[in-house]
Structures are given as structure tokens and as C-alpha cells.
Write a structure and sequence with these properties.
Layout (H helix, E strand, L loop, with lengths): L3 E10 L9 E7 L23 E3 L1 H15 L3 E5 L9 H9 L9 E6 L13 E4 L12 H11 L5 E8 L2 H20 L4 E7 L11 H17 L7 E4 L2 H6 L6
Parallel strand pairs: 2-4, 4-5, 5-6, 6-7, 7-8, 8-9
Antiparallel strand pairs: 1-2, 1-3
Length: 251
């Protein structure tokens, strides 16, 4: 039986990427195919301190129907960990396309690094690929992401690329994605946007961290301005949630 392990479900605002500022229901899965050095969600990797609740698709549909109704929030974000490890096809089909009035107009966003591309990914409203730069210690997924955008993206689906940046090597890594975005902008009709996201250099720090985050944000803007080649179609953003809540979990 298909079961999906969920560490937490909470409502908040989207802190980064194409829907920044939007009210969302976040569904955070347990388990990841990567283990980034700077990950701010390491508790999803399998820590006993953060046990997961396993849902069947039917149970998750019922639960999310209630949450979206109670919060008047119609955007669900599948995140993790890596949500592409699991089969969300039935959940998406029922909530995104259901004729029942109380379930209409629910949209789905997915956040993933792009190493696993399940068939159901084509059915969501927004896919945010977050390839991991050298600072993560993980493998690049450039060929997977480019192939998906060129050949597999669903009709009317929004696709974005978001690269967390921690150092100059990460900026050079991001430059090849920016070059592809420029090519796509010149040659394709569908909208593809790219975001540089300021990396959170200390995910263990408690309390407010906005001064550090804003200083790192200013530094990133300056470094891009000093060498802007290929970055003409890139949006540079801080992680909005870190400015408001710091490293607090579940917001």
C-alpha cells in the first residue's frame, strides 16, 4: 500500500521563489535523496526526534481538505526532504481536479532538487527546481532539469529554478543555469524564471537572524553587480521566512 511519511503540515507564507509571500499549506515529507551540508531541514532525514506520520493517499486527501477549508488557504506546497520520493498522484488528482465544491481551486507547488522526476510532477501547477551548488557537497542535476523544461513540463505549468548561494563558487555554478534561462527566454514562449536565494549560513542560530541575513543579501547583490554576466533575467531574494522567524521550525 502506498504510504507517504509526513513530518509536518503547517500554514505559513512562501519565503522564496516565484510565489514568495503567498499564503501556503506546507506538506513536509520525511526522507531525502540528498544530504546537503547546509540543509535547514535535516530533521526530515530520519531523526527519531521528529517522527513522521504515515498517510495513505486517501487519508492525506481528507486531512488536506480539512486544513485548506479551515485556513481558507488553497495553495499546497510539497516539500521536504524530497517529495519526489513518493507517489502523490492520487492526492494531486483528487484535490486539484475534484468536482466537489469545497475542494476546487486547490493548487500544488513542488520543491525538489531534480534528481528524481516522477510522472506526477507534470500535473502540478508550479515546479521549483533547486539544484544544489558546490557548497552543498551534492551532485548537480543540470541535465535532468534542462531536459524536463524542454521536453516534459506539463501544459500551463509554471517552472522556476532557485539556487541557494553561499559563496563565489556557487555563483559560478548558478551562472550556467542563468545562461540556459536566457536562451529559454529568447527562444520559448513559456515563462521560466530563476532566483538566487541567499544561503542561511547558520541554521542552528537561535532568535532573530535578520541582520545577518540582510548583510549576506547585500553582499550577494554586490557580488552579482560586480560580475553580472548572464544574470540579466535573475531575481535575487533573501529567504523571507528567515527575516521574520529566524530558524524557527514550522513557520
Amino acid at each position: 500500500m502506498n504510504r507517504i511519511p509526513i513530518v509536518e503540515i503547517f500554514n505559513s507564507i512562501q519565503g522564496e521563489g516565484p510565489n514568495v509571500g503567498a499564503r501556503c499549506i506546507f506538506v513536509r515529507v520525511k526522507g531525502c535523496s540528498y544530504a546537503c551540508k547546509w540543509c535547514d531541514s535535516k530533521f526530515t532525514w530520519g531523526s527519531d526526534s521528529y517522527p513522521a506520520t504515515e498517510y495513505t493517499p486517501e487519508e492525506l486527501i481528507v486531512h488536506l481538505s480539512k486544513v485548506t477549508h479551515d485556513t481558507s488557504c488553497r495553495r499546497i506546497v510539497l516539500t521536504g526532504g524530497n517529495p519526489c520520493l513518493y507517489d502523490f498522484s492520487e492526492v494531486i488528482n483528487q484535490l486539484n481536479h475534484s468536482p466537489r465544491e469545497y475542494e476546487q481551486n486547490i493548487t500544488f507547488d513542488v520543491e525538489t532538487q531534480g534528481d528524481i522526476l516522477p510522472e506526477w510532477l507534470k500535473t502540478v501547477d508550479t515546479v521549483v527546481f533547486s539544484p544544489k551548488a558546490p557548497s552543498s557537497g551534492m551532485k548537480d542535476t543540470f541535465s535532468n532539469i534542462v531536459s524536463y523544461i524542454k521536453n516534459d513540463a506539463g501544459p500551463n505549468q509554471h517552472v522556476a529554478i532557485k539556487v541557494p548561494v553561499f559563496n563565489d563558487e556557487d555563483i559560478e555554478f548558478a551562472r550556467k543555469y542563468a545562461e540556459f534561462v536566457n536562451w529559454h527566454t529568447m527562444n520559448c514562449d513559456d515563462d521560466l524564471r530563476m532566483y538566487l536565494s541567499v544561503g542561511n549560513s547558520d541554521v542552528e542560530e537561535t532568535g532573530q537572524i535578520r541582520n545577518r541575513v540582510l548583510a549576506d543579501y547585500e553582499s550577494l547583490i554586490t557580488r552579482i553587480d560586480n560580475n553580472p554576466t548572464n544574470f540579466e533575467n535573475v531575481f535575487i531574494l533573501p529567504q523571507l521566512h528567515t527575516l521574520v522567524w529566524g530558524n524557527k521550525q514550522g513557520v
